[in-house]
Amino acid sequence: MSVFGALNRFISRLDSDSPSQNSGVGHGAFGFQVLRNKNLEIAVEPWYDFIIGINGRQIDDPDPNLFATEVRNCAGSTVNLTIWNAKGQRVRILHLPVPIPSPTLGITLQWTPISNTEDVWHVLDVIPNSPADMAGLLPYGDYIIGTPEGIVHGESGLSELVEDYLSRPLRLYVYNHEYAVTRIVTITPSRNWGGDGALGCVLGFGALHRLPPPLTEPPAAPGDTLFETARFSNEDNRLASAQSPSFPISSTAKLPPPAQDPSDFLIPAAMTAPPPPPKFNAAPPAPPRGARGKRHAISPNKAFDEYFKEGEQKSKEDDFAPAAKATPPPPPPKLGGGPPSAKTPEPVAE
Predict the structure, then answer these.
(1) Pick from 131, 108, 120, 251: which is nearest to 191 by CA?
(2) Which end of the chain is more exposed for a tag (fewer CB within 10 A), N or C?
(3) pLDDT tens per residue across span 99-111
Protein backbone atom coordinates (compact mmCIF):
# COMPACT_ATOMS: atom_id res chain seq x y z
CA MET A 1 0.00 0.00 0.00
CA SER A 2 2.89 2.40 0.72
CA VAL A 3 4.19 2.03 -2.86
CA PHE A 4 0.84 2.95 -4.39
CA GLY A 5 0.44 5.82 -1.92
CA ALA A 6 3.84 7.24 -2.84
CA LEU A 7 3.03 6.94 -6.55
CA ASN A 8 -0.31 8.69 -6.05
CA ARG A 9 1.38 11.56 -4.18
CA PHE A 10 4.03 11.85 -6.93
CA ILE A 11 1.42 12.07 -9.70
CA SER A 12 -0.64 14.54 -7.66
CA ARG A 13 2.45 16.74 -7.29
CA LEU A 14 2.93 16.64 -11.06
CA ASP A 15 -0.70 17.68 -11.48
CA SER A 16 -0.22 20.70 -9.24
CA ASP A 17 3.10 21.77 -10.80
CA SER A 18 2.30 21.75 -14.52
CA PRO A 19 -0.88 21.67 -16.59
CA SER A 20 -1.74 19.04 -19.17
CA GLN A 21 -0.71 19.54 -22.75
CA ASN A 22 -3.53 17.52 -24.29
CA SER A 23 -6.32 18.45 -21.90
CA GLY A 24 -5.27 22.06 -21.30
CA VAL A 25 -6.60 21.74 -17.74
CA GLY A 26 -4.31 21.97 -14.73
CA HIS A 27 -4.86 21.29 -11.07
CA GLY A 28 -7.18 23.89 -9.51
CA ALA A 29 -8.94 24.75 -12.78
CA PHE A 30 -12.66 25.56 -12.91
CA GLY A 31 -15.38 25.13 -15.48
CA PHE A 32 -19.14 25.05 -15.96
CA GLN A 33 -20.18 21.52 -14.99
CA VAL A 34 -23.20 20.14 -16.81
CA LEU A 35 -25.84 19.23 -14.22
CA ARG A 36 -28.84 18.60 -16.47
CA ASN A 37 -29.37 18.28 -20.21
CA LYS A 38 -32.87 18.90 -21.53
CA ASN A 39 -31.82 19.04 -25.19
CA LEU A 40 -31.20 15.50 -26.42
CA GLU A 41 -29.61 16.85 -29.60
CA ILE A 42 -26.63 18.14 -27.60
CA ALA A 43 -24.11 15.36 -26.94
CA VAL A 44 -23.07 16.31 -23.40
CA GLU A 45 -23.03 14.13 -20.28
CA PRO A 46 -24.22 15.50 -16.96
CA TRP A 47 -21.61 15.41 -14.17
CA TYR A 48 -18.83 14.17 -16.47
CA ASP A 49 -18.64 17.17 -18.89
CA PHE A 50 -17.21 20.60 -18.05
CA ILE A 51 -17.39 23.57 -20.41
CA ILE A 52 -13.99 25.25 -20.10
CA GLY A 53 -14.00 27.40 -23.26
CA ILE A 54 -16.31 29.12 -25.69
CA ASN A 55 -15.54 30.26 -29.26
CA GLY A 56 -11.84 29.54 -28.83
CA ARG A 57 -11.43 31.44 -25.55
CA GLN A 58 -10.94 29.94 -22.12
CA ILE A 59 -13.64 30.67 -19.56
CA ASP A 60 -12.10 32.30 -16.49
CA ASP A 61 -15.09 34.26 -15.18
CA PRO A 62 -17.73 32.43 -13.11
CA ASP A 63 -20.46 34.92 -14.09
CA PRO A 64 -23.15 32.87 -15.91
CA ASN A 65 -24.58 36.02 -17.52
CA LEU A 66 -21.41 36.49 -19.58
CA PHE A 67 -21.68 32.92 -20.82
CA ALA A 68 -25.37 33.34 -21.69
CA THR A 69 -24.62 36.62 -23.51
CA GLU A 70 -21.92 34.93 -25.61
CA VAL A 71 -24.41 32.20 -26.58
CA ARG A 72 -27.11 34.76 -27.55
CA ASN A 73 -24.60 36.62 -29.69
CA CYS A 74 -24.25 33.44 -31.77
CA ALA A 75 -27.99 33.26 -32.56
CA GLY A 76 -28.51 32.06 -36.11
CA SER A 77 -24.99 30.64 -36.31
CA THR A 78 -22.85 28.14 -34.42
CA VAL A 79 -21.25 28.34 -31.01
CA ASN A 80 -18.05 26.39 -30.34
CA LEU A 81 -17.71 24.87 -26.88
CA THR A 82 -14.50 23.38 -25.48
CA ILE A 83 -15.54 20.50 -23.22
CA TRP A 84 -13.41 18.56 -20.76
CA ASN A 85 -14.65 15.07 -19.87
CA ALA A 86 -13.81 13.26 -16.65
CA LYS A 87 -13.72 9.88 -18.43
CA GLY A 88 -10.10 9.66 -19.43
CA GLN A 89 -9.58 13.42 -18.84
CA ARG A 90 -10.06 14.22 -22.53
CA VAL A 91 -10.93 17.50 -24.30
CA ARG A 92 -13.14 17.84 -27.35
CA ILE A 93 -14.66 20.69 -29.38
CA LEU A 94 -18.44 20.73 -29.79
CA HIS A 95 -20.12 22.82 -32.52
CA LEU A 96 -23.75 23.64 -31.65
CA PRO A 97 -26.25 25.62 -33.70
CA VAL A 98 -28.06 28.39 -31.78
CA PRO A 99 -31.64 29.00 -32.94
CA ILE A 100 -32.84 32.57 -33.41
CA PRO A 101 -36.26 32.33 -31.71
CA SER A 102 -34.83 30.87 -28.51
CA PRO A 103 -31.06 31.44 -28.30
CA THR A 104 -30.47 28.98 -25.47
CA LEU A 105 -28.80 25.57 -25.22
CA GLY A 106 -31.24 23.86 -22.82
CA ILE A 107 -28.61 22.74 -20.32
CA THR A 108 -28.14 23.53 -16.63
CA LEU A 109 -24.61 24.53 -15.59
CA GLN A 110 -22.75 25.19 -12.35
CA TRP A 111 -19.33 26.77 -11.80
CA THR A 112 -17.35 23.92 -10.21
CA PRO A 113 -13.69 23.01 -9.66
CA ILE A 114 -12.62 20.21 -11.96
CA SER A 115 -10.77 18.55 -9.08
CA ASN A 116 -14.15 17.37 -7.75
CA THR A 117 -14.06 14.59 -10.32
CA GLU A 118 -10.96 13.17 -8.61
CA ASP A 119 -13.06 12.05 -5.63
CA VAL A 120 -13.68 8.63 -7.16
CA TRP A 121 -13.41 5.23 -5.45
CA HIS A 122 -12.62 2.22 -7.65
CA VAL A 123 -14.18 -1.07 -6.55
CA LEU A 124 -11.30 -3.56 -6.71
CA ASP A 125 -12.79 -6.59 -4.95
CA VAL A 126 -16.12 -7.61 -3.45
CA ILE A 127 -16.30 -10.21 -0.66
CA PRO A 128 -19.13 -12.74 -1.06
CA ASN A 129 -22.17 -12.29 1.20
CA SER A 130 -21.00 -8.80 2.21
CA PRO A 131 -23.16 -5.64 2.11
CA ALA A 132 -21.39 -4.64 -1.13
CA ASP A 133 -22.18 -8.05 -2.65
CA MET A 134 -25.82 -7.82 -1.60
CA ALA A 135 -26.06 -4.32 -3.13
CA GLY A 136 -24.73 -5.55 -6.48
CA LEU A 137 -21.35 -3.81 -6.68
CA LEU A 138 -19.09 -5.29 -9.36
CA PRO A 139 -15.31 -5.54 -8.95
CA TYR A 140 -12.98 -3.67 -11.33
CA GLY A 141 -15.80 -2.26 -13.45
CA ASP A 142 -17.61 -0.11 -10.84
CA TYR A 143 -16.55 3.37 -9.69
CA ILE A 144 -18.27 5.22 -6.82
CA ILE A 145 -18.48 8.83 -8.01
CA GLY A 146 -20.72 10.38 -5.35
CA THR A 147 -23.92 10.18 -3.35
CA PRO A 148 -27.23 12.06 -3.29
CA GLU A 149 -26.87 12.28 0.49
CA GLY A 150 -24.32 15.09 0.27
CA ILE A 151 -20.84 16.08 -0.88
CA VAL A 152 -18.04 13.57 -0.33
CA HIS A 153 -14.54 15.04 -0.53
CA GLY A 154 -11.15 13.49 0.02
CA GLU A 155 -9.98 9.92 0.49
CA SER A 156 -11.55 9.64 3.96
CA GLY A 157 -14.82 11.26 2.89
CA LEU A 158 -16.50 8.00 1.92
CA SER A 159 -15.46 6.18 5.10
CA GLU A 160 -16.83 9.02 7.23
CA LEU A 161 -20.11 8.88 5.33
CA VAL A 162 -20.32 5.10 5.80
CA GLU A 163 -19.81 5.50 9.56
CA ASP A 164 -22.74 7.91 9.67
CA TYR A 165 -25.00 5.42 7.86
CA LEU A 166 -24.24 2.23 9.79
CA SER A 167 -27.29 -0.07 9.73
CA ARG A 168 -29.10 2.48 7.52
CA PRO A 169 -29.64 2.50 3.75
CA LEU A 170 -27.05 4.57 1.87
CA ARG A 171 -27.46 5.60 -1.77
CA LEU A 172 -24.40 5.85 -3.99
CA TYR A 173 -23.84 7.01 -7.55
CA VAL A 174 -21.94 4.19 -9.28
CA TYR A 175 -20.48 4.33 -12.79
CA ASN A 176 -19.72 1.05 -14.59
CA HIS A 177 -16.89 1.24 -17.09
CA GLU A 178 -17.75 -1.96 -18.97
CA TYR A 179 -21.39 -1.03 -19.68
CA ALA A 180 -20.90 2.79 -19.68
CA VAL A 181 -23.90 3.37 -17.41
CA THR A 182 -24.41 5.29 -14.18
CA ARG A 183 -26.83 3.86 -11.63
CA ILE A 184 -27.91 4.40 -8.03
CA VAL A 185 -26.90 1.60 -5.66
CA THR A 186 -28.50 1.29 -2.23
CA ILE A 187 -26.22 -0.34 0.33
CA THR A 188 -26.63 -0.86 4.08
CA PRO A 189 -23.26 -0.67 5.89
CA SER A 190 -22.91 -3.05 8.82
CA ARG A 191 -20.24 -4.30 11.22
CA ASN A 192 -22.08 -7.56 11.92
CA TRP A 193 -22.16 -9.18 8.50
CA GLY A 194 -19.34 -11.62 9.39
CA GLY A 195 -16.30 -10.06 7.74
CA ASP A 196 -13.97 -7.08 7.79
CA GLY A 197 -15.17 -3.56 7.10
CA ALA A 198 -18.61 -2.07 6.98
CA LEU A 199 -19.04 -2.51 3.22
CA GLY A 200 -17.10 -5.73 2.58
CA CYS A 201 -15.21 -4.48 -0.48
CA VAL A 202 -11.73 -3.24 -1.39
CA LEU A 203 -11.62 0.33 -2.75
CA GLY A 204 -8.86 2.18 -4.61
CA PHE A 205 -8.45 5.95 -4.51
CA GLY A 206 -6.05 8.36 -6.21
CA ALA A 207 -4.39 9.00 -9.54
CA LEU A 208 -4.20 5.28 -10.38
CA HIS A 209 -7.96 4.89 -10.02
CA ARG A 210 -9.39 7.76 -12.03
CA LEU A 211 -12.19 7.21 -14.50
CA PRO A 212 -10.77 5.56 -17.64
CA PRO A 213 -11.80 6.53 -21.16
CA PRO A 214 -14.80 4.69 -22.63
CA LEU A 215 -14.25 1.33 -24.28
CA THR A 216 -15.68 2.73 -27.50
CA GLU A 217 -12.54 4.84 -27.96
CA PRO A 218 -9.56 3.22 -29.68
CA PRO A 219 -6.88 1.92 -27.31
CA ALA A 220 -3.70 3.87 -26.80
CA ALA A 221 -1.04 3.15 -29.40
CA PRO A 222 2.53 2.23 -28.42
CA GLY A 223 4.35 5.35 -27.30
CA ASP A 224 1.23 7.33 -26.34
CA THR A 225 1.14 9.15 -23.02
CA LEU A 226 -0.39 7.09 -20.23
CA PHE A 227 -1.03 9.96 -17.82
CA GLU A 228 -1.99 13.10 -19.70
CA THR A 229 -1.69 15.30 -16.60
CA ALA A 230 2.12 15.14 -16.49
CA ARG A 231 4.02 17.60 -18.67
CA PHE A 232 7.73 18.33 -18.43
CA SER A 233 9.53 21.38 -19.76
CA ASN A 234 12.24 19.30 -21.42
CA GLU A 235 9.87 16.83 -23.08
CA ASP A 236 10.59 18.19 -26.58
CA ASN A 237 14.31 17.73 -26.04
CA ARG A 238 13.75 14.17 -24.87
CA LEU A 239 11.62 13.39 -27.92
CA ALA A 240 14.27 14.83 -30.25
CA SER A 241 17.04 12.87 -28.55
CA ALA A 242 15.00 9.67 -28.67
CA GLN A 243 14.78 9.86 -32.46
CA SER A 244 18.55 10.29 -32.83
CA PRO A 245 21.30 7.86 -31.70
CA SER A 246 21.92 8.14 -27.98
CA PHE A 247 25.64 7.27 -28.18
CA PRO A 248 28.34 9.79 -29.18
CA ILE A 249 29.81 9.40 -32.67
CA SER A 250 33.15 10.93 -33.58
CA SER A 251 33.99 12.08 -37.08
CA THR A 252 36.56 9.29 -37.59
CA ALA A 253 34.73 6.41 -35.93
CA LYS A 254 33.43 3.57 -38.06
CA LEU A 255 30.34 1.74 -36.94
CA PRO A 256 29.63 -1.89 -37.82
CA PRO A 257 26.68 -2.52 -40.12
CA PRO A 258 23.46 -3.76 -38.55
CA ALA A 259 23.32 -7.44 -37.67
CA GLN A 260 21.67 -9.68 -40.23
CA ASP A 261 22.38 -13.08 -38.67
CA PRO A 262 22.14 -14.36 -35.08
CA SER A 263 25.87 -15.03 -35.11
CA ASP A 264 26.54 -11.33 -35.82
CA PHE A 265 25.47 -10.27 -32.33
CA LEU A 266 28.83 -11.43 -30.89
CA ILE A 267 31.43 -9.14 -32.44
CA PRO A 268 35.01 -8.89 -31.08
CA ALA A 269 36.01 -5.38 -30.07
CA ALA A 270 38.97 -5.27 -32.51
CA MET A 271 36.80 -5.79 -35.57
CA THR A 272 34.90 -3.07 -37.39
CA ALA A 273 32.65 -5.48 -39.29
CA PRO A 274 31.11 -8.82 -38.34
CA PRO A 275 32.79 -11.98 -39.66
CA PRO A 276 30.95 -14.03 -42.31
CA PRO A 277 28.55 -16.59 -40.88
CA PRO A 278 30.02 -20.11 -40.59
CA LYS A 279 28.98 -22.75 -43.08
CA PHE A 280 26.85 -25.65 -42.00
CA ASN A 281 28.60 -28.90 -40.97
CA ALA A 282 31.95 -27.10 -40.93
CA ALA A 283 34.37 -27.74 -38.09
CA PRO A 284 35.37 -24.67 -36.09
CA PRO A 285 38.92 -23.42 -36.77
CA ALA A 286 41.57 -24.38 -34.23
CA PRO A 287 42.83 -21.52 -32.08
CA PRO A 288 46.46 -20.41 -32.68
CA ARG A 289 49.21 -21.32 -30.28
CA GLY A 290 49.57 -19.21 -27.22
CA ALA A 291 46.00 -17.97 -27.52
CA ARG A 292 44.43 -20.39 -25.05
CA GLY A 293 44.56 -17.82 -22.28
CA LYS A 294 42.26 -15.47 -24.24
CA ARG A 295 38.52 -16.08 -24.20
CA HIS A 296 36.69 -15.49 -27.45
CA ALA A 297 33.03 -15.66 -28.27
CA ILE A 298 31.89 -19.27 -28.07
CA SER A 299 29.00 -21.05 -29.65
CA PRO A 300 25.84 -21.26 -27.56
CA ASN A 301 25.88 -25.07 -28.00
CA LYS A 302 29.27 -25.36 -26.28
CA ALA A 303 28.74 -22.78 -23.58
CA PHE A 304 27.59 -25.25 -20.95
CA ASP A 305 30.31 -27.79 -21.82
CA GLU A 306 33.06 -25.22 -21.39
CA TYR A 307 31.49 -24.02 -18.15
CA PHE A 308 31.31 -27.50 -16.62
CA LYS A 309 34.86 -28.38 -17.78
CA GLU A 310 36.21 -25.27 -16.12
CA GLY A 311 34.33 -26.07 -12.92
CA GLU A 312 35.56 -29.67 -12.94
CA GLN A 313 39.19 -28.59 -13.38
CA LYS A 314 38.91 -26.10 -10.54
CA SER A 315 37.36 -28.75 -8.30
CA LYS A 316 40.22 -31.13 -8.99
CA GLU A 317 42.77 -28.47 -8.12
CA ASP A 318 41.01 -27.72 -4.84
CA ASP A 319 40.89 -31.43 -3.92
CA PHE A 320 44.57 -31.99 -4.89
CA ALA A 321 43.49 -34.68 -7.30
CA PRO A 322 46.33 -36.04 -9.47
CA ALA A 323 46.31 -34.92 -13.07
CA ALA A 324 45.61 -37.38 -15.85
CA LYS A 325 49.18 -37.10 -17.26
CA ALA A 326 50.99 -37.60 -13.91
CA THR A 327 53.41 -40.59 -13.53
CA PRO A 328 51.44 -43.55 -12.16
CA PRO A 329 52.71 -45.38 -9.04
CA PRO A 330 54.72 -48.66 -9.54
CA PRO A 331 52.62 -51.82 -9.98
CA PRO A 332 52.34 -54.34 -7.08
CA PRO A 333 54.53 -57.52 -7.09
CA LYS A 334 53.36 -60.52 -9.07
CA LEU A 335 51.47 -63.33 -7.40
CA GLY A 336 53.46 -66.45 -6.32
CA GLY A 337 56.65 -64.57 -5.91
CA GLY A 338 58.35 -63.60 -2.70
CA PRO A 339 61.71 -62.95 -1.18
CA PRO A 340 64.35 -65.67 -1.97
CA SER A 341 64.58 -68.26 0.82
CA ALA A 342 67.92 -68.81 2.63
CA LYS A 343 69.68 -72.14 1.64
CA THR A 344 71.34 -74.42 4.25
CA PRO A 345 75.08 -74.58 3.64
CA GLU A 346 76.38 -78.06 2.65
CA PRO A 347 78.78 -79.77 5.13
CA VAL A 348 82.41 -79.59 4.17
CA ALA A 349 84.48 -82.78 4.59
CA GLU A 350 87.56 -82.46 6.69
Answers:
(1) 131
(2) C
(3) 988 898 999 999 9
